[in-house]
Design goal:
This protein is mainly alpha-helical and 459 residues long. It contains 19 helices and 6 strands.
């Protein structure tokens, strides 16, 4: 006879190799707190509904609290024989309080129990990830406020394109990460439906008060279909997808930090606290934290693809394949939760090389568009102005000069529409100041963006 808690119809024990393969306690043990809180709410409801006695209800809740205290004190060692966190806790409870512990699982299946635990974990994870994102966005806003007038080149195709400011550049990332905040908020909303009461797949014959359990656990709604409730992992996918997009944003910023910290760019000097050296080359100061963040993005993508693939062929309702959700979820959560504060600290302690940025913006003809705009404002069709300035750039390349280093005579040799005031239009400062539409690099426009972002962060 099997000694498993579900072993009544089994004549022999599970093969040792199969038991280890089947067990999830090695990773789902981290769900102990949400599992116990869910069981407490379930027991309280069973007592209130008269399904179990009040004495059993009190014994179960006291026993669960004792188990929780002992786990957090490091006094509990989980047993692989009991497969998962749910069975481990139920076994401990029965050993401690006797018959009453066997009544806890009344009207409940591990299928709806694990669905509950995952949703509770997701809601907490969305909150913690949200907090880390807000700290990063706040750091980006602070850097931007200090660099409203720090001119640097903006790039397309990694070629210098137009002058911008460090503030404008950093606020682009702030906007990206705020979209991540919204994605995690949506993931939390998707998780905020209470599945307990769905049973294995077709609910239960016991008169459960699902609304009471939802209220006890802070859920705003109930899952409306018991089969979907135990088979659904969309909320897990939503969370991992949010992690994957966030990791992608972190990776893009990391790539720029890696580039900017090179001698060729020289835009940023990372703190020693966020850099490492070489075992052979004594001069090296490597941006390893940025490189690791960039590298870890791949594993978060893998977590998303692994779960999508595991779910794609599953018929309703529960299948054991769905046990694969947790390692992907935990890894995505842990990876992004590790990367976010490292990025925040790396940025807050960095030394921004403002002179190098401004010098780089003066190279590469980043004011060429402004020269074309100047001619267009004088009445020349923009496409003709584009051609004139293109020839002007070619002339500058051949003569080794910058556009704003040319004389008025040089400029007028290509178009008589150039006048003395052109130099007020094509200086780097003017190029930035004149881009005053909301969303542009003009310092006042960026200040408005920062103010809006700070208001969003207060919500």
């Amino acid at each position: 006879m099997s000694k498993k808690m579900w072993g009544g119809r089994f004549a022999t024990e599970t093969d040792a190799l199969a038991a280890g393969f089947h067990s999830s306690i090695s990773f789902d043990s981290r769900l102990y707190r949400v599992d116990i809180m869910g069981s407490m709410a379930h027991a309280k409801m069973l007592g209130a509904a008269g399904i179990i006695s009040e004495a059993d209800n009190r014994a179960i809740i006291a026993g669960l609290q004792g188990i929780l205290d002992d786990i957090e004190a490091g006094k509990v060692e989980f047993n692989e024989h009991d497969e998962d966190i749910h069975m481990n806790i139920e076994r401990l409870l029965t050993e401690r309080i006797g018959e009453a512990g066997k009544r806890l699982h009344t009207g409940r299946s591990r299928n709806d129990q694990v669905a509950l635990d995952v949703r509770m974990f997701l809601k907490d994870s969305c909150n913690s990830t949200d907090a880390l994102l807000r700290e990063l966005i706040d750091a980006l806003c602070e850097i931007s406020e200090d660099n409203l007038n720090t001119i640097m080149p903006a790039y397309t195709h990694l070629q210098k394109a137009q002058p911008t400011t460090l503030a404008h550049h950093m606020m682009a990332y702030a906007q990206m990460f705020y979209r991540d905040v919204l994605r995690f908020a949506n993931a939390k909303l998707a998780a905020d439906m209470m599945p307990l009461g769905s049973g294995a797949l077709c609910a239960t014959t016991f008169p459960l008060n699902r609304d009471m359990v939802a209220s006890e656990l802070g859920f705003s709604a109930l899952t409306p279909n018991s089969m979907d409730a135990v088979a659904d992992r969309d909320c897990v996918l939503d969370y991992i997808y949010a992690c994957a997009v966030c990791a992608m944003h972190l990776s893009r910023l990391s790539e720029e930090i890696v580039l900017w910290s090179t001698g060729e760019f020289g835009f940023i000097r990372l703190s020693d606290a966020y850099s490492t050296g070489s075992s052979i080359m004594p001069q090296k100061k490597n941006p390893d934290m940025a490189e690791l963040i960039r590298g870890k993005t791949g594993r978060v993508y893998g977590d998303l693809m692994a779960l999508l693939t595991a779910l794609k062929g599953l018929p309703l309702a529960y299948n054991k394949d769905m046990q694969e959700d947790k390692e992907a979820l935990f890894d995505a959560h842990d990876t992004v939760s590790a990367c976010l504060p490292v990025m925040t600290g790396m940025l807050k302690t960095a030394d921004w090389r403002k002179d190098n940025m401004t010098k780089a913006a003066g190279l590469g003809f980043t004011n060429a568009t402004d020269a074309a705009d100047y001619l267009a404002k004088k009445g020349m069709p923009f496409r003709d102005a584009h051609e004139v300035v293109g020839k002007l750039v070619l002339y500058c390349e051949q003569s080794g000069k910058a556009i704003d280093a040319l004389t008025l005579e040089d400029l007028q040799s290509l178009s008589p529409m150039f006048e003395e005031d052109v130099f007020d239009s094509i200086s780097l400062e003017a190029c930035v100041q004149r881009r005053a539409v909301f969303g542009g690099p003009n310092p006042k426009s960026v200040q408005k963006h920062i103010a809006i972002m700070k208001e969003c962060l207060r919500k």
